[in-house]
Amino acid sequence: MRSFSQFTCVDWSGAKTERPQGIATAIIGLDGPPALLSPSPHWSRAEIVAWLLDLAQKEKDMLIGFDLSMSFPYLDQNSYFPGWSRSPNHAKALWGEVDTICSNGPHLTVHSLLSHDEASRHFRHSRDHVGDLFTGGIGRLREVERYQRATGQANSASCFNLVGAAQVGKSSLTGMRMLHHLQGAIPVWPFDPVPDHGPVIVEIYTTIAALAAGQPKGRSKVRDRKALKRALEQLNASMPTKLVHYDDHSTDALITAAWMKQAARNPALWNPPAMSKSIAEKEGWTFGVV
Known about the structure:
Elements: E1 6-11, E2 24-29, E3 35-37, H1 45-58, E4 62-66, H2 91-101, H3 111-114, E5 124-126, E6 129-130, H4 143-151, H5 169-182, E7 200-203, H6 206-212, H7 225-234, H8 248-263, H9 267-270, H10 277-282
Parallel strand pairs: 1-4, 4-7
Antiparallel strand pairs: 1-2, 2-3, 5-6
């Protein structure tokens, strides 16, 4: 197991705009409090890609967590999109296919995929628009999502559900475009081996960090200074020196960055027993789930 000198959480967004308010990035080093990296007025997804490529070039020893699902369910039906001849057969091919279909979409948006004649059939788009191949109920789940729910570690939603505040489909799809644009410049666990140095990207779920910070189940969001201070102290981290707004995205990123600093030292999180080779290749895994 290797070490890192910096830990970053990116709270991601699937919004259509160039600079979504939902993107927040927090970083913490080996010493000192976590801090927000805040360009003005907000991050764009293109700026995140450029920042990541710069980290890769400089070989920064940084663990970077993205709050999104890095693949779709595959193993339950032996396909991401059953019945579609273009359905890829592993996660990196899925990233490429999503980006190809959406290549004309600005800001790494994914409208072209969600309106695609075949792909769109698998999604719940709204309460009144449900694809004929959406499986019903909560929708199809990845193996890690089934495991999270069965063990009570998280209550993940299906990536094929695009309805409601808890939906993660759009952010996951824009995230897949982002990962494809990196073109392998930064290894992504568990799809790639963890290198001896340089940056590494992992999928994280900010609720897991919030629970580790003492937030109660069902009330994981932190929206004021007192609650943020209490959560960071639970993770042996101090308060940021400057913080004007206590919005969900900022506090999620700050708490999760502090949690990643602790979690990265746990060997079990890098080798979860429930993650098979096939799961790692096809669907990926949420770092922190054991």
